[in-house]
Design brief:
The protein contains 4 helices and 8 strands. By secondary structure, it is of the alpha+beta class. It is globular and about 50 Å long.
């Protein structure tokens, strides 16, 4: 019973439907662009007791080892035996150097029906998610997929200005997790490129021998 309630917490946090594509999607109250302190607070409120944090060097920390970086790269936590969440971050560079913001949020639901509640069917998931987020932009029942917002492109150049989207995937294989994923690939790509450019410029210039 405890596990079944946790699923409702993840999927039905707010009774209000969210308009697709307006940047207001959230999972467990976490939105794209939230800082790591906001994310930690939301996870604790959702019942994640000890979320783990990983860090990487910031764009300006060119001489720091990967273990000693100051920028948060991800936060992971488990809510119960079924539900877990991972939030990935990108540095808000060059706007706010050293500040990490959420760029991808993935909730996973993995059921062991020999020990806990029955796994929801795809249609049961769909009904709960529609109650939470409104009607999807795209649905493929055969593949167990629902999408809200910008639909993925086969090739990046087909839609260079991809926006935030929410995607649910119902696992077709036993033993694998069902996932609810929120991401803004355009945000992540542009910021990561800015960081790579900064690191490259800060590197010591080579001294070729002529």
């Amino acid at each position: 019973m405890k596990i079944a309630v946790a699923f409702v917490l993840v999927v039905v946090v707010s009774p209000l439907p969210v308009i697709a594509g307006n940047g207001q999607f959230d999972i467990l109250g976490i939105k794209i662009g939230d800082g790591n302190v906001e994310v930690q607070s939301a996870l604790l409120k959702a019942g994640v007791s000890s979320p783990s944090t990983e860090k990487l060097p910031c764009a300006t920390e060119t001489s720091v080892s990967r273990r000693n970086g100051k920028c948060v790269s991800s936060i992971h936590g488990s809510i119960d035996d079924v539900s877990s969440i991972t939030v990935e971050f990108t540095e808000d560079y060059p706007t706010r150097p050293g500040v990490s913001v959420a760029s991808k949020i993935v909730a996973r639901y993995k059921y062991d029906e020999s020990k806990g509640p029955r796994r929801p069917t795809f249609l049961e998931y769909r009904d709960k998610l529609v109650d939470r987020y409104g009607g999807p932009t795209d649905m493929n029942e055969s593949y167990g997929q629902l999408i809200w917002g910008e639909v993925w492109c086969r090739k990046r150049r087909d839609c260079p200005s991809q926006k935030e989207h929410l995607e649910f995937n119902f696992s077709q294989q036993s033993g694998f997790a069902d996932t609810l994923e929120l991401e803004n690939p355009n945000l992540t790509g542009s910021q990561e490129q800015s960081k790579r450019d900064a690191v490259e410029k800060a590197r010591e210039v080579g001294n070729p021998k002529f």
